[in-house]
Design brief:
Blueprint lengths: L10 E3 L2 E3 L15 H12 L1 H24 L4 H4 L5 H20 L2 E7 L10 E5 L8 H6 L2 E5 L8 H7 L3 E3 L6 H13 L8 E3 L25 E7 L16 H8 L3 E8 L7 H5 L1 H16 L8 H7 L13 H11 L6 H14 L4 E2 L1 H8 L5 H10 L7 E2 H12 L4 H12 L8 H12 L7 H7 L9 H10 L3 H11 L38
Parallel strand pairs: 3-9, 4-7, 4-8, 5-6, 5-7
Antiparallel strand pairs: 1-2, 8-9, 10-11
Helix pairs in contact: 2-4, 2-6, 12-15, 12-16, 13-16, 16-17, 16-18, 17-18
Pathway: Phospholipid metabolism; Lipid metabolism; phospholipid metabolism
Main location: membrane
InterPro entries: EF-hand-dom_pair, EF_Hand_1_Ca_BS, EF_hand_dom, LPCAT1-like, Plipid/glycerol_acylTrfase
């Protein structure tokens, strides 16, 4: 597969086309000098315990106020204006929460713009979402948020959460997403009776290098929203906490004497057009463009699902510049459904094994997929047209689709690839392994010599899948030992961490059927 501007998604800021983002939005690289590492170690033993104690104390101090104010509050009571004593409690809780952030090192928080009234904008859309510290706007505004239902059962924290009247999403209820959107719509159309709802439409944390695709849930009600943009100006970015990278939220509290949110900026209220009211995805994209222009960053079509693909816990960790993210986007745009993707994979794999030739042109590729030639199909074809000679190896498409379909099941993908590439006696050579692994990782070149020689213990110049499987069982980290060490490297300077779920304040509640199937793709650059 190609790895170039032509093989990756473009980003757009406003009306100006730009190249791809400089790095994956889901990876945070942090290089620390020996002196900085020593400083972290020192502050971990000195300042960090003090900050942790005061933050916990402030939360415990806030708990009785939130508990008393939440007692006996039925839905009709919640829709009424706050009584005088609850207004006092509100002020006290905001002051306590501000002291908690002060204890965490946030001495200065600058706010620009005017926060709209609930009757003017029932929903606040906040981006970019890059840290647990993005909870600061929540504690400053006490706007309602979308939370996992399990959060309300957490001691102390659950009481504080319930005080801001969140919209809960239940994992156990299969219909929960639809109910959540309906509840947001009901509150948003209540003419300002309910508190504003604050939503992080990206649905996951990024490194703030661009704005990824907004989930449409916040825009389905079709009511005016107020965009809110966040900026962190620290020289050393110890704020960002992405799916791959150091645990910067904790690192920030350990490392920095103080930090400041340069700007929590309230932008003008965005009033949707009639077309945007009918099309939540269009509405979301236009609001995202306004926010990107205010931030001076590009937008990209990467999504939360791409984050899950890029950081799946398989034996092959995808590099940050993999073009499989672009491929996954094209798969969705083509109309292949996630719920039927495994069946589609089986069908395409069986068809590829029966084909008399591995190389096909665009017309044959269209017939193979049973999709008409379109801009999306041409873009997908271009990803695999490595030599730009108008033909592709259909086996590479099957391998890439297997990775997208089963990102954490590396050996299943490799077994399928062996079946596609093996000779009559069930073996492959080093060149075949290179084709398999570079496609499975979405890179243009890869050196597999060390890995192949390690698997080929008998030095026969060919291996079977059983050979590879036995090797992988004995060396589960074979990719790190034989691939990444030589060519990908670890540029972060810190150990990386991988998480299995987004944090609690950006729960994905958007219905699954709100994909924009007709959205045109950005034209690729050479």
């Amino acid at each position: 597969m190609k790895l170039s501007g032509r093989g990756r998604g473009c980003c757009v800021a406003g009306s100006r086309e730009r190249g791809p983002p400089p790095r994956s939005p889901f990876v945070h690289q942090l290089r620390l000098s020996p002196l900085e590492k020593a400083k972290i170690a020192f502050m971990t033993l000195t300042l960090f315990p003090i900050r942790l104690f005061f933050a916990a104390f402030m939360m415990l101090l806030a708990w009785p106020f939130a508990f008393i104010a939440s007692m006996g509050s039925d839905e009709q009571e919640l829709e009424k204006p706050l009584s005088w004593w609850r207004k006092i409690v509100d002020i006290l809780l905001k002051a306590i929460m501000r002291m908690m952030w002060l204890a965490g090192g946030f001495h200065w928080i600058n706010v620009k713009g005017r926060r709209a009234l609930p009757a003017e904008a029932a929903i606040l859309t906040v981006a970019p979402h890059s840290s647990y510290f993005d909870a600061i706007p929540v504690t400053m505004t006490f706007a309602s948020i979308v939370m996992k239902a399990e959060s309300k059962d957490i001691p102390v924290w659950g009481t504080l959460i319930k005080y801001i009247r969140p919209v809960f999403v239940s994992r156990s209820d299969q219909d929960s997403r639809r109910k959540t959107v309906e509840e947001i719509k009901r509150r948003a159309q209540s003419d300002g009776k309910w508190p504003q709802i604050m939503i992080f439409p990206e649905g996951t944390c990024t490194n703030r290098s661009c704005l990824i695709t907004f989930k449409p849930g916040a825009f389905i009600p079709g009511v005016p929203v107020q965009p809110v943009v966040l900026r962190y100006p620290n020289k050393l970015d110890t704020i960002t906490w992405t799916w791959q990278g150091p645990g910067a939220d904790c690192l920030n509290v350990k490392y920095s004497w103080y930090n400041s949110v340069l700007c929590m900026q309230f932008l003008p209220v965005y009033i949707p057009s009639e077309e945007e009211r009918k099309n939540p995805v269009l509405y979301a994209n236009n609001v995202r463009r306004v926010m990107a222009e205010a931030l001076g960053v590009p937008v990209t079509d990467y999504t939360f699902e791409d984050c899950q693909l890029a950081l799946a816990e398989g034996q092959l960790r995808l590099p940050s510049d993999t073009c499989l993210l672009e491929f996954a986007k094209l798969v969705r745009s083509l109309g292949l459904k996630p719920e039927t993707l495994e069946d589609d994979l089986d069908k395409y794999a069986a068809s590829a094994m029966k084909m008399k030739k591995e190389k096909v042109d665009l017309k044959e590729f269209s017939a193979y997929l049973e999709f008409p030639v379109s801009h999306t199909l041409e873009s997908m074809f271009a990803l695999f047209d490595e030599n730009e000679d108008g033909i592709i190896d259909i086996r590479e498409f099957v391998i890439a689709l297997s990775v997208v379909c089963k990102p954490s099941k590396t050996l299943e993908t490799i077994q399928l690839a062996f079946q596609l590439y093996q000779s009559e006696n069930g073996t492959i050579v080093e060149e075949d392994l290179a084709h398999i692994l570079k496609t499975a990782m979405g890179v243009s070149q890869i050196n597999v010599t060390h890995l192949f020689r390690a698997v080929d213990e008998e030095e026969e110049g060919e291996i079977t899948y059983d050979d590879f499987y036995r090797f992988a069982e004995l060396h589960p980290h074979f990719a790190e030992d034989y691939l990444y060490a030589d060519q990908l490297g670890d540029e972060s300077g810190m150990e990386t961490s991988s998480l299995s779920a987004p944090n609690g304040i950006c729960t994905d509640f958007s219905p699954d059927n709100t994909e924009d199937k007709n959205k045109p793709l950005q034209k690729k650059l050479n």
